[in-house]
């Protein structure tokens, strides 16, 4: 992971050179990184909203097939297919973001090694508002408190727009309190630059969730979804038949053209090289039997 730390540290140092303040460089760097991965975050949020939207239908299936797990799995997968929802689609963006988060976090956690590689640490000792040194923890604990509050508000806002089942809702409520406290505890021990990053990304995430979560998911009735799926399947079958028919016609035309060329070539090869005989009939006169036996009298 060191190459990630070095890469993010180099970018952060270039931003610092343009701005001249390490604190503002951390905030701007966080905004840039969050903006780059914003499409992934939006995709993850939309996937979560879609899963939450079909939760009532999943609950109906769970009640209907509670004694038949195999049938329940089949009908649940059919429901996902109807609404084109993939339960695992929300995990992929998170997995892609993890190396970015680790690299950024590692560079901020040890700026002496990965950001200010030249050894000039005067920027870390510059005060940033109430913080005398961004390379050390916040002495007034203001940044950790802000992180806890903003993270809690973000998770609460997300839960208010979710329709999870009771078991999932209970675990979400627990995490709504546990996660902010864990981040706040780590922020107490980490350099103030890391806490500043957490504050910036938490505020950015809250604004993002506020905009994305407020957009409703247009969920059609299951009957309409089934009708649309059948129509699409029939359309796909027609297109497949048309393609097969067109391919067959092209092959037939190619075979006919090849057969025609072969026939012409064969006729040329079988044509005689000599000029054919004349069509005039040759009639041979055969003498009569009496004429063959009768000889003229030489004496007369």
Which percent range fits the helix content?
over 70%
Number of domains: 1
Radius of gyration: 43 Å
- Spans of 5+ residues with little confidence (pLDDT < 50)? 291-295
Counted beta strands: 0
Structural class: mainly alpha
Major beta-sheet overview: none
**Shape designation:** flat
Q: How far apart lie the N and C ends?
A: 142 Å
Element order: H for helix, E for strand: HHHHHHHHHHHH
So how many helices? 12
Look at the structure and give the mean pLDDT. Answer: 77
Q: Report strand %.
A: under 5%
Protein name: Membrane protein insertase YidC
Biased composition (Basic residues): 268-283
Subcellular location: Cell membrane; Membrane
Region (Disordered): 227-300
Characterize the structure shown:
This protein is mostly helical. It has one domain (2-215). The chain contains twelve helices and no strands. Helix 1 packs across helix 2 (22-36). The protein is flat, with a radius of gyration of 43 Å. The termini are far apart.
């Amino acid at each position: 992971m060191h190459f990630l730390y070095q890469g993010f540290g180099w970018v952060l140092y270039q931003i610092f050179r343009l701005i001249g303040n390490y604190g503002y460089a951390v905030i701007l760097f966080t905004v840039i990184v969050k903006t780059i991965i914003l499409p992934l975050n939006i995709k993850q949020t939309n996937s979560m909203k879609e899963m939450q939207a079909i939760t009532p239908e999943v609950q109906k299936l769970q009640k209907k097939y509670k004694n038949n797990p195999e049938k329940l799995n089949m009908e649940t997968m059919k429901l996902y297919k109807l609404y084109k929802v993939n339960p695992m689609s929300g995990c992929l963006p998170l997995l892609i973001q993890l190396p970015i988060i680790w690299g950024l976090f590692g560079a901020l956690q040890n700026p002496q090694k990965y950001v200010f590689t030249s050894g000039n640490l005067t920027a870390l000792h510059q005060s940033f508002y109430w913080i005398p040194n961004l390379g050390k923890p916040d002495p007034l604990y203001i940044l950790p408190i802000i992180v806890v509050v903003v993270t809690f508000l973000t998770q609460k806002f997300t839960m208010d727009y979710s329709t999870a089942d009771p078991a999932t809702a209970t675990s979400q409520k627990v995490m709504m309190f546990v996660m902010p406290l864990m981040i706040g505890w780590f922020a107490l021990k980490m350099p103030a630059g890391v806490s500043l990053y957490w504050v910036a990304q938490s505020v950015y995430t809250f604004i993002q969730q506020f905009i994305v979560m407020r957009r409703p998911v247009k969920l059609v009735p299951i009957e309409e979804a089934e009708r649309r799926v059948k129509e699409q399947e029939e359309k796909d079958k027609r297109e497949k038949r048309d393609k097969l028919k067109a391919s067959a016609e092209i092959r037939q035309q190619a075979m006919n053209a090849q057969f025609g060329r072969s026939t012409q070539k064969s006729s040329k090869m079988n044509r005689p090289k000599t000029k054919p005989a004349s069509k005039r009939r040759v009639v041979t006169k055969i003498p009569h039997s009496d004429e063959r036996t009768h000889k003229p009298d030489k004496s007369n």
